[in-house]
UniProtKB/TrEMBL annotation:
It comes from Devosia litorisediminis. Keywords: Hydrolase, Metal-binding. One of its GO terms (molecular function) is metal ion binding. The keyword Cell inner membrane does not apply. Gene3D superfamilies: Fumarylacetoacetase-like, C-terminal domain. InterPro entries: Fumarylacetoacetase-like_C, Fumarylacetoacetase_C_sf. This is Fumarylacetoacetate hydrolase family protein. Coiled coil: none annotated. Residues 33-232 form the Fumarylacetoacetase-like C-terminal domain. The keyword Hydrolase applies. SUPFAM superfamilies: FAH. Pfam families: FAA_hydrolase.
């Protein structure tokens, strides 16, 4: 017969839940972090790939999330750490095989985030036909700003998305330049996995990605959504 467990039943204390602050109060408990690859045409071109392919996804662990403007350490095993500013979608309702027309009803809110990438490891993995996890899913690789509820800001589908390093702009694009819209990305992803409340989807980055070093201050802004900030420790 099943019985509920207590902390004493575990070999070691369960890890603390991961959460992202919600604007004007509350916390969003993170379950999974999905990322859309190659979702802005200019970034696809700068990375040497073709445009308008079906969307593809990779994942980061929930505990890669960094919040509150906290610093992220420069990760080991790389000499080419890159920034990627992205719109983050916070899922608030479960669903699978979601229709494009229903997709936005599953969105709780939005935030600005950074998909930090060990670009040299990614290039090696691509060349060898291997997975990207060690290039994308490392510790502290997903700084995220405050989540703004959709009931407050609506569902932004256009507006500037920018990133500055030490006050100098590096990336600039527009949400309207996304190849796959938020609705399309949700619908497509939900055909592979059941999306659940607590999932985050990072929706791709515009052109202008580049390397950062220890001491750099990264500040991202998305019009109508918010900001994200971190320092490379």
């Amino acid at each position: 017969m099943w019985k509920s467990s207590s902390v004493a039943d575990f070999l070691f204390a369960p890890h603390a839940p991961v959460s992202v602050p919600i604007a004007r109060g509350g916390l969003f408990a993170v379950r999974r972090v999905y990322c859309v690859g190659r979702n802005y045409a200019e970034h696809i071109v700068e990375m040497g790939n073709d445009t308008r392919e079906p969307p593809f996804f990779f994942a980061k662990p929930a505990d890669a999330v960094v919040v509150g403007g906290a610093a992220m350490p420069y990760p080991p095993q790389t000499s080419d750490l890159h920034h990627e500013i992205e719109l983050v979608v916070a899922i608030g309702k479960d669903g699978s095989d979601i229709a494009v027309g229903d997709a936005l009803s599953h969105v709780y809110g939005y935030a600005a985030g950074l998909d930090m990438t060990r670009r040299d490891l990614q290039a090696q993995a691509k060349k060898a036909g291997r997975p990207w996890e060690m290039a994308k899913a490392f510790d502290c690789s997903a700084p995220i700003g405050t989540i703004e509820p959709a009931q407050t800001i609506g569902h932004p589908d256009k507006g500037a998305i920018t990133l500055s390093v030490n006050g100098v702009e590096r990336q600039r694009g527009d949400l309207g330049d996304q190849i796959w819209s938020v609705s399309e990305a949700i619908a497509y992803l939900s055909g592979f996995v059941t999306l659940k409340a607590g999932d985050l989807i990072m929706t791709g980055t515009p052109a202008g990605v580049g390397a950062v070093v220890a001491g750099d201050v990264l500040e991202g802004q998305i019009a109508g959504v918010g900001s994200v900030r971190t320092t490379i420790g």
